[in-house]
Each structure stands twice: as C-alpha cells, then as structure tokens.
Design a protein that fits this description.
The chain has helices at about 10-15, 25-35, 40-50, 55-65, 85, 90-100, 145-150, 180-185, 190-195, 200-210, 220-230, 250-255, 260-275, 285-300, 335-340, 370-380, 385, 420-425, 460-465, 485-500, 505-520, 530-545, 550, 555-565, and strands at about 75-80, 105, 110-115, 130, 135, 160, 235-240, 275-280, 320-325, 365-370, 395-405, 410-415, 435-440, 450, 475-480. With about 575 residues, the protein is an alpha/beta fold. The chain has 5 domains: about 5-65, no CATH class; about 75-150, Glutaredoxin (3-Layer(aba) Sandwich); about 160-385, 3-Layer(aba) Sandwich (Rossmann fold), CATH 3.40.50.11540; about 395-480, Ubiquitin-like (UB roll), CATH 3.10.20.600; about 485-570, de novo design (two linked rop proteins), CATH 1.20.1440. The strands form 3 sheets. A 6-stranded mixed beta sheet has the order 6-12-11-15-13-14, sandwiched between helices. It has a 5-stranded mixed beta sheet with strand order 2-3-1-4-5. It has a 4-stranded parallel beta sheet with strand order 9-8-7-10, with helices on both faces. Strand 4 and strand 5 form a beta hairpin. Helix 13 (about 260-275) packs across helix 16 (about 370-380) and helix 21 (about 505-520) packs antiparallel against helix 22. The longest helix has 18 residues, at about 505-520. The model is unreliable at about 105-110 (pLDDT under 50).
Length: about 575
C-alpha cells in the first residue's frame, strides 16, 4: 500500500467529527473526493473522529455502491444498462469503451475505470453515461476518450405537456435563479403559509386532495397532521430526492431546473408540522442536482427565506442537503432515515410509522420532490382552484417521465384525467416511423405492463388501479414491436437481485431465484414448471417481504406472464 497522507483529511475530520455518526456518509464522500477511494487508514481515522466502530464504517462502505475500498481509475465512467438505455445501444457503448481501455487498469494515457450501472436517472438521454459523476447523456461515442475530452456535453431535458404549473420554470436549458423564481410568483406560497397558523396550512393541503407522488399515494395533509400532533421534540421534515426507479427522472429535472420550488415546498412543510430542521436526501448519482440545490439554499438564506426568523416572523428553519451513495433501497423512507443517521440503508419494521418514530426516532414527515413542488402551488392558488384540475379523486397536475421507443422522450406535465394515448402520441410524438406500439412499462422496474388495449386508459389513480396498472411515480417506458421481452425481464430481474438489501429472506432469496430462472429461459431452456415457479416466487415476495422493494420485485414479471403467457412456455423468436 502506498503511503497515505492523512494530513489531507484533517479539514474533513474537523468539519464532520463533532456531528458524530450522522455525518458518516458526508465524511466518506469527502474522503473519497480527496483520495479517489477510501484507504484503510482513512476509514479508521473517520471512525475514530465520529466515534463509529471501524466494523460499522466498513459495513457502510461495503453497503453503498459508490464507495470504494480499493483504488479505481483516475477517470471513472458509469454506463447505464437499464431497459431504456439498452434500447438506445448502451451495451454497444460499454463494449466500445472497454475495448479501448482496461477496466481498473492503465491505458497508457490515463487510468480509466468503466462500470455498468443500474438506472442513472438520465433515461430521456439514453444511452446515459456518467463521467466523473457528471452526466453525458445520449452518447454516440467510439471510446472513453470522447467523453474524457468533453466532446459530448450533458443535454437538458425536453419538458412539455398540456399545462406548465409545476414545470413552468423548467426546460430552459439552465437553472432558474432566485430572482426569476420570485418574478414568476416564487415564495408567494411561503408568504401565504406564514400568514396562517400551521393548522390552517395543513387544512388547506388536506382540502386540496394532494396525495404523495412517489408511488404510495398517501394523503399529504393527513401525514402532516399526524406528524404535527405527535408527541416529542424535535420534529423533522425530509425531502426524498433519492429517485432511483428505472425510467424515473422527474425529480432530477425539478432540482436542476427549478430548485427553489423544492426548497419552498419543504419550508412550508416544516412550518406546518412544527419542524425547525429539514433534510433533502439526494440520490448519489445526482451530483449536478446536489450542487444546484446547495447554491439555491445559499440564495434562499441570503434572501431571508431560510434561517432565523424567516421573512420577519417568529419561525426559524434550516435545511441540510445530504447525498446518497448508490443504494436503490434508500428510496424506501425508513431506509433513507437509516442512511441519514450514518448506517446501512436497511428498512425498518413498521409500525411504528415515521409520523411518530421517524428520523432519529422523532416525528417526521417525508415527501418526495414532486409532492413538495405541489405545495407552493396549492398555497398560492388555493385548494378550491387546485381541485379544478384533474379528476375528483385525483386532483391536480401530474408529471410523467416518458422514455424508450418514443419520438420525444422527456418530462410531461398534464392534469390527471388525460388518456395514455394523448400523452404518448399527441405530446410525445408516438413511436418512431415504421414501428408499432407493443407495450409500455408503467411504474418502472416495480411496475406492470400496458398493452395496446390500454392506450385509452385514463391517467388517474382510480382508473389505472381499475386497469391493473400502477401510477407509481409517473414512469412510462415505451417499447415497440422489435423489442425482446426476455431481455427486458432479464434486466429488471437482475436489477432487483443486485439491489435487494438482504435484510429479509423472501426478497433476498426470491429475487435471486427469479433472476436465475429468467436467465435460463432467456437462453432457450424453458421448462414446464417455470410458469408456476415464477408465480410462486412472485407471490411469496409480494406477501412476505419487509418493504416495497421485495413486495414489488415480481410485479413486472407477473404482469408479463399475464399478457404474454406464451413466452413462459415456449421460446419466442
């Protein structure tokens, strides 16, 4: 082992040491930025400074995919291989890169590490690549050198739709400044909220009918009310910005293009539930969004929207922005709490629920980015006007992420109640010339398939539920008549087998067995009992797993078995 200069670590230890274990992930990120990986003496020094046993430090390092215990290349490249990127040639991109470089080795010019990665949240720019944690979407490259030289810059996303309320400041190919945000009505919702009592704010959100946009669809006002009334102090609010569902990128667009809307929603939530501190937990791969939020936070503090006595009132509130480190499971709310607390991201047994026993064991309201982005709108226009959009049971606007075999992949904002056909063909341009619509995966890897018979389904919670389709977080991955169903299912099953945290056996073992069977089937070895085996594994995971990962790990497979049973009895060309 080469000599490690621990003096470089001194500023990190001085900054994070007093915070204790909760600062473990930020300290590890900072150390890795310095050394390129986390050497043993560095891990030991961090553990001593934060009073965390070395075994626990290594447990955290090994749990998260973005931490490294051994040296990696000076240049680190991640190539996404989820279905949307695979459709666009990600496997060929990875092959070309690895043919002209040595994984974890020297190239003669520069040490380069090239890795396959699950969804990078750049699905509309497929095939997606991260270079030194910076996005380089829609890459048509011959080798890693093209990326390192910066010849392929990151592109901003297409943003459109029938309405532009949540996304009015998005899609401008730049981040909206504080001044621009204020000019468009920004922070008016916060001013309105602070003129009311917390109970009145909660009542307005309840009257709006807003439910969570992360997939669970729990009534936001009810969650806030339960948190506000829970005994114990302090209370917390948390923004879940760890979107890692394959096909999802809406939260990334919101954070990169209009970060103040996210901050404003979280501040209002904090006021409503009686919290003095909030956290934004940003997906580890979203380094650009992370830095954009940090800059917006500084702007908001300087303008009096954050900190002590906000806008001259008695209310004070601070936000801490945390960065994940590559663990899909941390999108589950209690696993996210564990991560903020400096632990491995294992989900907790519920009950108790976060509203009474959340972050640090205290009452906590946690909402995702899109949910919080709705809050300033509700406070500005009022619950009655908000309910005029959408349907009676699904009020308001909704963001949909379209990717895959579609002419204009991007982020689309529509009122609940439009049809899938309208979204796909009228807004996103339909499929490419000469291709026919075969199906779409609703809800990401944890979702279900729509067929041509579902084109006229109404996009609302109630109608999709009746059609057997999940709304999820608004993910729709479209595939045409040329796509191989085996390949799609194989990638989805591998994703869950790799991302299962292993805490509960139904998920840990079930995801592995499901993937093994699909690998064999994709290779042409299909056995009469496979259909029943996959059914039994899927139902067991659904009924017995501890959290949503295992409970939905078989959803797409079971859905495919329903609509295309022939693929599970005879090999299809």
């Amino acid at each position: 082992m080469t000599d490690i200069d621990l003096s470089l670590l001194t500023p990190v230890l001085e900054k994070y040491g007093p915070q204790g274990r909760t600062a473990l992930l930020p300290a590890l990120h900072a150390a890795q930025d310095i050394y390129g990986y986390i050497p043993e003496p560095v891990a030991a020094s961090i553990g001593m400074a934060l009073n965390v046993p070395l075994a626990d430090v290594y447990g955290v390092i090994d749990f998260y995919a973005m931490f490294y215990r051994a040296p990696v290349g000076e240049t680190h490249i991640h190539v996404c291989n989820d279905p949307a990127c695979a459709f666009a040639g990600a496997d060929s991109v990875f092959k070309r890169m690895t043919q002209t470089s040595t994984i974890n080795g020297g190239t003669g010019e520069m040490r380069v590490t090239v890795e396959l990665a699950p969804c990078l949240g750049l699905c509309e720019h497929a095939p997606a690549v991260l270079v030194q944690e910076k996005p380089a979407g829609r890459t048509q490259v011959q080798s890693w050198k093209d990326l390192v030289r910066g010849s392929i810059p990151h592109q901003r996303s297409i943003v459109g739709g029938d309405i532009r309320l949540l996304t009015r400041n998005c899609g401008k190919n730049r981040t909206t400044s504080l001044e621009e945000y204020e000019d468009s009505g920004g922070y008016a919702g916060l001013r309105k909220a602070l003129s009311l009592s917390p109970a009145e704010v909660i009542a307005e959100v309840k009257a709006s009918g807003l439910v969570g946009r992360g997939g669970a669809a729990f009534p936001t006002g009810v969650k806030w009310e339960a948190t506000a009334s829970a005994p114990g102090d302090p209370h917390y609010v948390v923004c879940n910005a760890d979107e890692a569902e394959p096909g999802t990128f809406k939260d990334r667009v919101m954070m990169e293009d209009d970060p103040h809307r996210v901050l404003e929603g979280l501040i209002i939530a904090g006021y409503a539930v009686g919290a003095r501190k909030g956290y934004i937990y940003v997906r580890g791969e979203y380094i650009q969004a992370y830095h954009t939020l940090e800059e917006a936070q500084e702007e908001a503090e300087a303008a009096g929207y954050l900190g002590e006595n906000i806008l001259g009132t008695d209310y004070s509130f601070e936000i801490e922005i945390r960065r994940g480190a590559g663990a899909y499971i941390c999108g589950e709310e209690t696993a996210l709490f564990e991560s903020i607390e400096g632990k491995r991201g294992f989900p907790r047994v519920k009950p108790p629920f976060p509203t009474t026993h959340g972050l640090f064991g205290q009452p906590t309201a946690i909402n995702n980015v899109e949910t919080l982005a709705n809050v300033p709108l509700i406070m500005t226009i009022g619950a009655e006007a908000y309910r005029q959009m959408g349907t009676e049971k699904s009020p308001g606007p909704k963001l949909f992420c379209l990717s895959g075999d579609v002419v204009r992949p991007g982020l689309y904002e529509v009122p609940f109640g439009v049809t899938f056909r309208h979204l796909l063909f009228d807004l996103a341009g339909g499929l490419r010339p000469g291709r026919e619509f075969r199906g779409a995966l609703f809800g990401g890897a944890a979702g279900a398939f729509a067929t041509p018979d579902h084109l006229d389904v109404v996009l609302s919670f109630e109608n999709l539920r009746a059609a057997g389709l999940p709304l999820g977080s608004g993910v729709i991955t479209v595939f045409d008549d040329t796509r191989d169903l085996y390949d799609i299912l194989l990638r989805l099953s591998r994703f869950f087998a790799e991302e299962s945290c292993g805490k509960c056996y139904p998920c840990q073992i079930g995801t592995q067995r499901q993937h093994e069977i699909l690998v064999r089937m994709a290779g042409g070895d299909i056995r009469p009992e496979d259909y029943q085996r996959l059914t039994d594994i899927g139902r067991t995971m659904t009924d017995s797993s501890l959290c949503g990962l295992g409970q939905t790990a078989a959803s797409a497979v079971l859905s495919a078995m329903k609509y295309w049973p022939q693929y599970f009895t005879t090999r299809q060309a």
